[in-house]
Amino acid sequence: MANPKSHVFILITTLLALLLLLHFPSVSLAQTLFVFGDGLYDAGNKQFLSQNRVDASFPPYGITLGKATGRWSDGRIVPDYLANFMGIPQIPPFLQSTADFSHGASFAIADATVLGSPPETMTLSQQVMKFSENKNKWTNKTLSEAIYMIYIGSDDYLNYAKNNPSPSDAQKQAFVDQVITKINAEIKVVYGVGGRKFAFQNLAPLGCLPAVKQANGNVQECVKLPSEMAALHNKKLLQLMIELSKQLNGFQYSFYDFFSSIQNRVIKSKTYTFETGIAACCGTGSINGSDCSSNNVGHLMWGADPEVVGPNNLRELMVLPLDLTVILGDIHEAMAAMRPRQSKIESLYDTKKMDLDMENQWFYQVDKAASFLI
Ligand SMILES: *[C@@H]1O[C@H](CO)[C@@H](O)[C@H](O)[C@H]1NC(C)=O
Ligand SMILES: CC(=O)N[C@H]1CO[C@H](CO)[C@@H](O)[C@@H]1O
Fold this sequence. Notes:
By secondary structure, this protein is α/β, with parallel strands linked by helices.
């Protein structure tokens, strides 16, 4: 996978993070969050851009919070949980011009793609351009300490599969390469502006989404092509992360293997205490399934499972110093400085419950988001 040198690097960073985490399990240094992506991460941008009715502005969206906010969710979205965990307010949609962006901004918007130029949305490039044009809203220090969270590509592959029912292997690979090349270019723009800490979530097995199966007319079987495209993409995306961490000085990342996480649940749903992995949570149609909010999932997302997250989990990404040698010199000082924040976070939040909530929310949302594509 990686060369020995980067193994050593990973080992050292993991040990360092572990050392900090042992003393202060939820210490957070990052105080700013920038979000890029599609409907899964949309905090309400769509309603500021669209001329049409935006479903997410109306119930049942937002029902668990009693208010629809433009999030494609029954309540909070994953970046909200992360913000909560970091001890900062929810990150507002950038298109809400009156919002307070002191802790970051969300550029994510429903229907976003990497390639093409779909109407009433912003491609990844357009999102990154907006971020870059507005970088003066934040200091250089803030920009370099921030976490950059990215989830994008589902719509590219679902649309591709719809328009190209039987592509050759070479055609599939060529399309994936186009998507990855573009993502690479955009990460470099963010890095150029000062971004160092990237949190990537890879794509779900798109053909297993209930909405996709339903549209295919066979709810028992996952649709092969969309999942295959997602798997090809994920492999290349991980390679890109490894490559960038060698190429770009100080580039740090957390890679969450959402694909495996979802697939484990679809295949071994009982193990994960979902009532079913076949039907959707709270959806409509023949396989909508059961109430997702009552599910109790037995393992931590982006939290601790070394099989699906690496090389750093989100907590580690938050605390990893930009310059590792500095912390080696000043570790006691750094820990002392973190102590008040640590106690504050622990007194305010049930961090374990937050991990579980995040997991449930992800599962719910990826399905919901996909149901609007078909
Ligand atoms: C911020 O960083 C840029 C380069 O990324 C540099 O040109 C600029 O002078 C810096 N601003 C301050 C205030 O240090
Ligand atoms: C297959 C399945 O679980 N279908 C359910 C979908 O939701 C409706 C209403 O909430 C139920 O009546 C179905 O049983």
